[in-house]
Amino acid sequence: MPLYARERAPYLYSNVSGRSAIRNRQQNWTPGSGLTSKYPVQSKLRLNVEATMNEIVGEDPEARPDYFKNNFEEVVFVFTVMMATAATTFLQGVTVINTAAIGKSLDMTASQITWIAASIGLGSGSFMLLFGKTADLFGRKAQLLLGMTFLGFFSLLAAFAPNAMALDIICGFLGVGTAIISPPAIGTLFAAYPEGKRRNKATGALGAGNPLGFVLGSMSSGLATRIWDWRASFIVISIFFFVMTAMAIWTMPSIPRIGNRREMMKSFDYLGTVLTITGVALFSAALTQGPDIGWRAPQTIITLILGVLFMCAFAWWENIHAHPLLDPSVWKNTNYTLCVLCTMFGYMSFVTNQFWIPLYMQEVQRLSPLNIASRMLPQVLAGLAWSYIGQALVCRLPGRIIMAIGGIAYLTGAILLIFIRPETSYWKFLFPAMVITVIGADFQFIVANLYVAKQMPSQSSLGAGVIQTAYRLSVSVGLGITTAIYGTTQKTTLGSTDATFPFERAYLGGIAFAAFSLLFIPFMKIDKQGSGEQAPPTTSTTLFDSETQESLPRSAGEYRDDGGDPSLTSKASQSTLGSAATYGSEATYFDRWSWENGQVWTPTPGEHHHHDATSEVLYEVCVKCLEERRVILPVRQSAVDTQYQNQAELSGYMRNRVFEGGPGWV
């Protein structure tokens, strides 16, 4: 994606508005148009930034990234990332079609059976933000390989679990493993692809990963169980993860780690990590154990209260800690907050039904694991088709419309499940329900991730991390709530005589989740993604006052965009799933919107410099995101004049500044 630089003017006046002006060559909107300078431009410092950045990010954003030697290697890379992000649903596919067999073999209660799947989601969601941070400490590729190996080992260990408690704990570790691999996988993909249709296609493939992962897990598990027993299924997935490790070694590019490892470890939010893990674990435990030991039991009440208190303490701590695990400033973007809530409750409906449908087939319809897996297969085929359609729609329809389509699909599919009876034909209700609900999973995943990548590039690491965390935690919270409904209903007179009745009540929970997710959509303002836009409107407000030698503040209204609040954050991005704006530049070296009124982030020693009112502003660049702007502080004149006289030398210098994070180019 080309970046445009303004000509050098010692005291520059700017007419550019908040909407960025890239992608406008076809509209004859050229760099420097609409600018006035009080002093002559020094011609020797007219730098071809577009050509220079093309050397770094590639001249054609739709071309295959240079990381991959051929299309086959690129496809393997995308598949590896897709399965890394879908590892949670892959493991759930392995376990849910065997829940009855596992429960019978290990003499498990209903809550212990639920914890097989819930502990995977709990372990993944609780540790997602933590491992988003550690990807910067150890490097994305190194962490991904470690996580794949970790999953392979614990999958093998699960095959030899002696009792219910051991299996639930091991499944929790498997959830931790999925949290290890997801952040570096997504970060590497966004860093490898610039904004454009090719990135949209890759992101769409991630959307298809959840249904594909579930069916691959269930099919492999069903085959292994039929040949031997449920323990063989964990041996099969152990082999799968070791194969994925080899694929990652081959295809994953090694993008340089950014930041100081020692400083990151010092500033890491250890207390916040403990609070969030403990709070969510206690809250989920209270929901799942309530039906077994009673909702009025002291153990249930104390566990529930402690869980809520720990989560409240986490929210308080994140507001006062200098380097929070979850930066509260991310919620200032109203669109993003609504997007997270909508996708979380929608996915909560989807994933809980994914648990109860196979269990219904086992407990009520008495189907074999392989038969269940074959009945779930159409969902992955539909998921692939809807993913392709979603990729095409994001460039043609507003994101809010696509989110609404996904939400309605979640609700429609959940309602159809209510009408299923033991004698009901598979094709009448279950088949259309699975084909329809996967629309929501695909469409909302694509829109949410593209919104973060495009509208919040300086916050894309944190934004994507929160979305992934919401997905994972929705598994444990959703299963906890529906298990409480199922267990309570099962103890009633009707529930003990009608095996279908408790499942109907669990499905009602899924309907409630889907309906609740629709409430957030009318308030969203998400436009088309990855499409060209009109040249930005202009303003006559000066960027720099030559008389006072100070930058002039601008009102937020002059930079108001269609995406929401212009003041998303007053400091650099904290988490690091991977920036979509540049080659993995997770840190913003000065405040977003830093020349406007608002809080100023004062860096501590060792942190990156920020832009203040007295900084010399020589350039303004329209970066590839259509909503964010950065002021480029170029190298000192002497460095350019004496060391880098030609464009080729400048390119090398600029490349070093971008990757090293020095005080030159941002």
From TrEMBL:
GO CC terms of this entry: membrane
Name of a matching Pfam family: MFS_1
Region listing for Disordered, in residue ranges: 531-576
Compartment(s) where it occurs, according to its Swiss-Prot or TrEMBL record: Membrane
The keyword Transmembrane helix is assigned to this record: yes
Species the sequence originates in: Hymenoscyphus albidus
Protein name: Major facilitator superfamily (MFS) profile domain-containing protein
Keyword Zinc attributed: no
Ranges that cross the membrane: 75-101, 113-132, 144-161, 167-193, 205-224, 230-250, 270-288, 300-317, 338-356, 376-394, 401-420, 426-452, 464-486, 506-524
Domain Major facilitator superfamily (MFS) profile: 77-529
Domain of life: Eukaryota
SUPFAM superfamilies: MFS general substrate transporter (SSF103473)
Membrane-related topology note: Multi-pass membrane protein
Biased composition, class Polar residues, residue ranges: 536-552, 567-576
Keywords, ordered alphabetically: Membrane, Transmembrane, Transmembrane helix
Any one GO molecular-function label of the UniProt entry: transmembrane transporter activity
PANTHER family assigned: MAJOR FACILITATOR SUPERFAMILY (MFS) PROFILE DOMAIN-CONTAINING PROTEIN, MAJOR FACILITATOR SUPERFAMILY MULTIDRUG TRANSPORTER MFSC
